[in-house]
Amino acid sequence: MANPPTQKSTGFSENINFKNVLKEAASARDAEDKYQRENDAKFRAVYQKVATYEEFCDIVLASNLKPLDKSDSIPSAGAGLTPWNVNATHTNKQQKSDEILVPQIESGSNNIETIKITSQAEFYKTYTKLTTDDKYLLLIQIGGDKLLSLFPTEIEVFEDILFVLTLEYRDNDMDIITNILMCMSAMKRFSLALQFLEKPSRTDLSNLLKLLTVSARDKTQNDELVKVVSIYS
Question: Are residues 95 and 110 in contact, defined by beta-carbon separation less than 8 angstroms?
């Protein structure tokens, strides 16, 4: 009678916990990705010749912030913009020249509280926590000039801003949105950002320019809009 075939050895120990192996591999990959992001941010900060060590740290810390995907949604805690800083209080202190005060508007209420955005890290921390409509309100409140003062070189959520402005577009905000686009075009790395736009973002941009053009039909000649269309087309 023939002996039953023996089972070939796989070369792996039966005691290996593959879940743990995969978990450890994922952790190692995440650690490597974090290192690369922070290292790239350090070089970017040096290239930008930041004025202070605090600003250098802000850029490095911001490299680990993960923007929301277009399909993501975080429900607001109540109507309108959600509280971004629960410890914020009303003060009568004089505003510093580098502080951006952003109103927190509550629907149906005359109460307006403000938070201070003084760095790129604070902007990213605030922006990425908001729903799409609240992101739109934040951008409209900040405006193009203040956005450029925060990001003279580049803004990492450029494509998301195009998406938000297109999706939530309102005719009454035409001038502000035009100014935002104009000021973003003044950022030092704008040409690269525009060159490497993903296809969906190019579609967003095209639709946004069409919306602006339609809104301007019943108004006097808008020289800034003409320039924006020329720059982004």
Answer: no
